[in-house]
Amino acid sequence: MKIAVTSLSERPTPLAATMSPKELDLRAEHTRFEAPVQVAVTVTRMQEDVLAEGKASTTAIAECSRCLEDVPIALHGEFEALYVPDTGRFAKRMDHPDFAGSGQRVNFYSELTVDLTDEIRQSVLLELPMKPLCRPDCAGLCPRCGADLNAGPCACKPEKAEDPWAKLRALIPASPK
Ligand SMILES: [Zn+2]
Ligand SMILES: [Zn+2]
Fold first, then answer.
1. Closest ligand relative to 152 C-alpha
2. What's the pTM?
3. What SS3 string covers the chain?
4. Alpha-carbon distance 4 to 56, whole Å?
5. Which ligand is nearest to the CA of 69?
6. Ligand 2 centroid – CA 71 distance (Å)
7. Cα 68 to ligand 1 centroid, rounded to whole Å
8. Centroid of ligand 1 to alpha carbon of 152 (angstroms)
9. How far is the CA of 149 from the centre of ligand 1 (A)?
């Protein structure tokens, strides 16, 4: 999502766009991005700098980390970034007390064009859960036969708790009768 800096005024300008996962190059392991991404951003020009605050929403198809079924995951990313012209004055800015340690993300722009694509992509990817689940109590797959235990118990016998004395007992000869 590219914005011409000269088109912006010093008043906050709300912009909206629908982007394809391909445009955003959305990729993550065990996840498919097929739905469009709705982007709403407010852009404010402050002399040469541009502040962008926005939201990006979509639905991804992830794999349940237990049973491997598809799970739709609603993602609502948020971002806030400052864009400064790539003119080499940045180092000076970093020393400015208003600027140092503000914690705000700073990106460069050139050719009078601010590109929000990276921020949008990252805000969406950050929302992906580490271990997606199709439901909180997903029973997962049987580690032995691979059956989906959500459909009911499989034919495998339940594993017995290990007998801590089994190995020792095997060493003792059976007592004569
Ligand atoms: Zn599951
Ligand atoms: Zn089994």
1. 2
2. 0.77
3. CEEEHHHCCCCCEEEEEEECHHHHCCCECCEEECCCEEEEEEEEEECCEEEEEEEEEEEEEEECCCCCCEEEEEEEEEEEEEEEECCCCHHHHHHCCCCCCCCCEEEEEECCEEECHHHHHHHHHCCCCCCCCCCCCCCCECCCCCCEHHHCCCCCCCCCCCCCCHHHHHHCCCCCC
4. 20
5. 1
6. 23
7. 6
8. 13
9. 9
Which ligand places an atom closest to the C-alpha of 133?
1
Strand partners, 37: 19
Considering every ligand atom shown, identify the ligand nearest to the alpha carbon of residue 140 and give its number: 1
Q: Which residue's structure tokens are 């914005």?
A: 3
The pLDDT profile of the chain, 177 residues, written as one tens digit per residue, is 999 988 888 899 999 999 999 999 999 999 999 999 999 999 999 888 999 999 999 999 999 999 999 999 999 999 999 998 887 655 555 555 455 455 567 888 888 899 999 999 999 999 999 999 999 999 999 999 999 999 999 988 766 666 667 667 777 776 665
How many other C-beta atoms can be found within 10 angstroms of the C-beta atom of residue 97?
7
Q: Which residues contact 14 (CB under 8 A, 6 or more apart)?
A: 40, 41, 42
